[in-house]
Design a protein that fits this description.
By secondary structure, the protein is mainly β. It has no helices and eight strands. 0% of the residues lie in helices and 40% in strands.
Length: 93
Amino acid sequence: MNVKPLADRVIVKPSETQEEKKGSIIIPDTAKEKPQQGEIIAVGPGKMVEGKREEMEVKIGDKVLYGKYAGTEVTIDDEEYMIMRESDILAIL
């Protein structure tokens, strides 16, 4: 992947949703909730504050939790990713 996020943005690969079945009810993919966790694939250099660059708290390979409506979905090389600001990340797992 040749995509580099800018400033305090990160690229996250959402975790695969685990299919759960309750009895014989099958839930279509469109009705399932989006995963709210994933793995950091790329990290920007950090944002500028008063002329100095702030270091990012997350790094490539971190497993993170993020907000339900955080980021923007993008498709790169037929793979689904999320691009979001570091502040949209709630926790590192």
